[in-house]
Amino acid sequence: MIELSISGGIAEVQLNAPQKLNSLDAEALTQLGEAYTQAEAEGVRALLLHGAGRGFCAGRDISAVDPSTDDAYAFLSDTVTPVLRRIAAFPAPTFAAVQGACLGIGLGLAIATDVVYVAEDAKIGSPFASLGATLDSGGHALFVERLGAHRTLDLIYTAELMSGAEAVHSGLFSRAVPREELLEFTRDKARRAASGATLAFRESKALVARIRDERIGLWESLSDENRAQGRLCDSADYAEGFAAFQAKRKPSFTGK
């Protein structure tokens, strides 16, 4: 179900159950978290998440779930949320290539990823109205922050889905590209990040997370930036970047 490959300092994690649009059960989610742990242990400098087939991830696999005995709270709190936190905390730049369905937990995987590129015809939203369930995996926070309360509830009440192009136009994700170009486009961006100044990227990732999660203001964020820059002064990539600039050549970063 979950496949991990590592090459050239880049990890690729693939959701590989295309016959069910890569929907995830507890076992698959455990495997997904383990893939990120292994990739981190290997010291990769970028990670790409994508789904096999025509959909990225349609959410939770409910094909065998009995609603009369299902403990949705435990599943989300004890299984899903730790994996989303694991993805968000990955110490190198992360990218997701999203095509087709990106719903429920699938949307959560995208939210937890640093940079998300979507196919123009991807399907994003809240289909839960027909299940008697509610949007989960961080969807409310993302939608309210980027779309506002009215559009969020419109999507929830109607269960209408946005295209990838509309989602990007609305500020949900980074860029929309034609489906047939999506995976290679995302691979190219991951390769570029993997050859960059990894420690500097890590500092920026932490700064952005603090602004998002703690809602700090301009001057507190500026102080954080100052401290981050001070830490980077001691890195080999900082010295290389300045040396390359002064010598008018392309820098060769090692991520250290």
From TrEMBL:
Entry annotated with the keyword Ligase: no
Pfam families: ECH_1
GO-annotated molecular function: isomerase activity
CDD domains attached to this UniProt entry: crotonase-like
Domain of life where this protein originates: Bacteria
Keywords, alphabetical: Isomerase
Entry keyword Disulfide bond: no
Name of the protein in question: 2-(1,2-epoxy-1,2-dihydrophenyl)acetyl-CoA isomerase PaaG
Organism, as annotated: Nesterenkonia rhizosphaerae
